[in-house]
Recover the amino acids of this structure.
């Protein structure tokens, strides 16, 4: 977009000839910010999870949107408008340097479980383009995850340009078009006199209480809404931030909820909850609709479209959090030199390789655990739990900064910040606690084994590893200054190593 070019210093040369006072500032409209936020957050991947609730999914999407989505957007906007450096700097300034590192680590660490979950969805979706019977095959799912991850790493090693080219267009091709088609097919299906397999009367709008386990799937919606803070960095690009940003966020919240709710409802109209796959539910619905309308040949086409969105998002995520971790690790000395190694394209190769080894091992759980649905849910919960740690730190940092540095320049001030942040903290902690309760759909699973597995993932990778990095750090680990200049440079590496895989030696 043009504003990005101006900010990056790549505006047309003729603008440089004008006096500084004559150059008009470039603003982004509040509608553009709203649509950018929708693009960053909306996805069809979570639709099957909520489709198991039918019309109740409306309530289960709206509730976290109010108590988590909006607080996240408003608080992040204030922080981004006053302090550069992202969540690390926000938490360092507001709480402490160790908490800043924990925040940026959890942003990265959650991807260790997010990738197996996301690529598990990709594997199941792709099976509908070749053989739907593979959808519940653990060997097939693990193989796809491992192959796709390592291919993505090889592409990432070529630099940011390669990633940008592959990830662009995924939102339209793989989310808006299939999502709109799914809702349209569902509406026509009902208008032709077919009954919904899930109850659609208002008496089912609110969930029936059957213990905490009956509500556990709502925790997944916190992960669905994660990412609202990404576009907060653009708050100073608005003409009137104090008025325009809230409008943008309220509109974005409404659009995101609609994009999440309508496809979930469409799935619930045609696929019974007892038969619904958490990874393949979208394709199950398309397959049922296409069979009904006698256009079954479109099933593999839609499967490939959905894959475009997921793979595009995966490529974008692969480059981002690990790069942020590398920058902080080099500037503050939180990572050992081995994990700071970059190739000739300045790509954090050893972080990606180390993460790939973990991803490969974790993907094998699809082989050894009995249900693809169970493994997918476990990965989703671990991802959410680790990510929620970062949000609690962000809310606390915002409240402390408002108290400690009330006069610090901010382009935007969130209204009733303490109230908004407190709501965010309470809802985030509640979601974190509920996440340790096995969902009612897993009836026969051992609750103790489930809790221990989630604790091992969250405690080990989310908390223990960054604690050890921080405690064991040495002065020699600091290899770059804040402006990117090398402090203690490592010896140059041969160019051929840039393309080497995990066993490149």
């Amino acid at each position: 977009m043009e504003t990005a070019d101006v900010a990056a210093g790549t505006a047309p040369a003729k603008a440089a000839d004008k006096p500084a006072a004559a150059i008009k500032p470039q603003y982004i409209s509040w509608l553009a910010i709203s649509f950018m936020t929708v693009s960053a957050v909306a996805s069809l991947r979570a639709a099957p999870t909520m489709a198991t609730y039918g019309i109740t999914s409306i309530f289960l999407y709206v509730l976290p949107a109010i108590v988590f989505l909006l607080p996240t957007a408003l608080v992040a906007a204030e922080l981004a408008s006053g302090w550069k450096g992202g969540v690390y700097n926000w938490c360092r300034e507001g709480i402490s340097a160790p908490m800043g590192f924990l925040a940026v680590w959890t942003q990265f660490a959650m991807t260790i479980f997010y990738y197996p979950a996301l690529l598990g969805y990709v594997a199941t979706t792709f099976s509908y383009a070749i053989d739907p019977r593979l959808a519940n095959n653990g060997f097939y799912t693990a193989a796809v995850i491992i192959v796709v991850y390592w291919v993505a790493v090889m592409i990432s090693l070529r630099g940011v340009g390669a990633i940008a080219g592959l990830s662009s267009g995924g939102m339209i091709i793989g989310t808006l078009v299939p999502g709109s088609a799914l809702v349209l097919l569902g509406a026509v299906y009902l208008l032709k006199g077919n009954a919904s397999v899930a109850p659609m009367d208002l008496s089912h709008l609110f969930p029936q209480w059957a213990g905490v386990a009956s509500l556990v799937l709502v925790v997944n919606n916190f992960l669905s809404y994660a990412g609202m803070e990404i576009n907060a960095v653009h708050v100073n690009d608005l003409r009137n931030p104090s008025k325009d940003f809230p409008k943008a966020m309220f509109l974005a919240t409404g659009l995101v909820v609609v994009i999440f709710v309508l496809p979930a409802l469409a799935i619930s109209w045609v696929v019974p909850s007892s038969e619904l796959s958490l990874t393949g539910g979208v394709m199950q619905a398309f397959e049922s609709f296409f069979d009904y309308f006698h256009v079954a040949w479109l099933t593999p086409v839609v499967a490939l479209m959905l894959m475009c969105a997921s793979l595009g998002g995966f490529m974008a995520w692969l480059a981002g959090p690990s790069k942020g971790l590398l920058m902080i690790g080099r500037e503050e000395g939180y990572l050992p030199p081995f994990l700071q190694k970059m190739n000739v394209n300045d790509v954090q190769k050893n972080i990606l390789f180390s993460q790939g080894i973990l991803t490969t091992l974790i993907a094998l759980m699809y082989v050894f655990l009995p249900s693809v649905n169970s493994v997918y849910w476990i990965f989703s919960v671990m991802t959410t739990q680790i990510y929620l740690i970062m949000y609690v730190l962000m809310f606390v940092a915002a409240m402390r900064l408002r108290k400690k540095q009330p006069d610090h320049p901010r382009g935007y001030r969130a209204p009733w910040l303490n109230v908004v942040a407190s709501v965010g903290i309470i809802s985030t902690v509640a979601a974190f606690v509920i996440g340790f309760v096995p969902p009612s759909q897993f009836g026969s699973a051992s609750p103790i084994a489930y809790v221990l597995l989630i604790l091992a993932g969250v405690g080990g990778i989310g908390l223990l590893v960054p604690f050890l990095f921080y405690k064991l750090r040495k002065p020699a680990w600091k290899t770059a200054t804040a402006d990117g200049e090398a402090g203690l440079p490592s010896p140059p590496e041969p160019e051929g190593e840039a393309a080497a895989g995990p066993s490149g030696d």
About this structure: Confidence is low (pLDDT under 50) at residues 1-23, 164-168, 482-505.
